[in-house]
Amino acid sequence: MPRQVQAQLCSQRESDRPVILKDIYTQVKKIKKDKLKGRRLINSVIDTHKKESFVWSSARASEGHITSLFLTHPLAIKLLHGFPHFILMDCTYKTNNYKMPLFHIVGFISTNKTLSGAFGLMKNETEPSYTWALNQYIEKVLNNTNIVTPPVIVIDRDLALKSSLKKLFPDSKVMLCILHINKDVSAH
Hints:
- Residues 87-183 form the MULE transposase domain.
- This protein is α/β, with parallel strands linked by helices and 188 residues long.
- It has two domains: 2-36, no CATH class; 41-187, Nucleotidyltransferase, domain 5, CATH 3.30.420.
- Helices cover 46% and strands 23% of the residues.
- The protein is built from seven helices and seven strands, in the order αααββαβββαβαβα.
- The protein has helices spanning 2-12, 21-36, 41-51, 74-82, 127-145, 159-168, 178-187; strands spanning 55-60, 66-72, 86-92, 102-108, 114-121, 152-155, 173-176.
- The chain has a seven-stranded mixed beta sheet with strand order 1-2-5-4-3-6-7, with helices on both faces.
- α5 (127-145) runs parallel beside α6 (159-168).
- It starts with a helix and ends with a helix.
């Protein structure tokens, strides 16, 4: 996108001075900073989610900064209530600006479509982090809305997640995702 902006600006400019990408990135950074109004980005995200009626919770370190964040939307909860039978849990590894694992809980509806049931930014991929995120899911989604515990939960081969699930969802059948199994077999 910055290259498109650069091309557009170059075609409209009358000056001999070229527009370089660094100028565009500097302006984008300035606009983002002005939008934050002195707040940290994570606080801006939380404020936005409060306005949009998201259900959320956070864990903070002793210094006060956020170490974990759990988010879901009331519509996602409503859909999970209607289709509670099978969910998938996966974690992307440090692909966001915070370099934190993003825990994603995915539901499946009757039209063979997926829905994002909930998200969690976690400090790390350890059993305590998964336990915190799963407890938020139980407290904010399952207990508050009388959604049944999912009978089937599909995961990749994350042992910390599997261990947390065994403790918190003892009646659920935890299965490994065939896509991840095939990927591992192909790699080795």
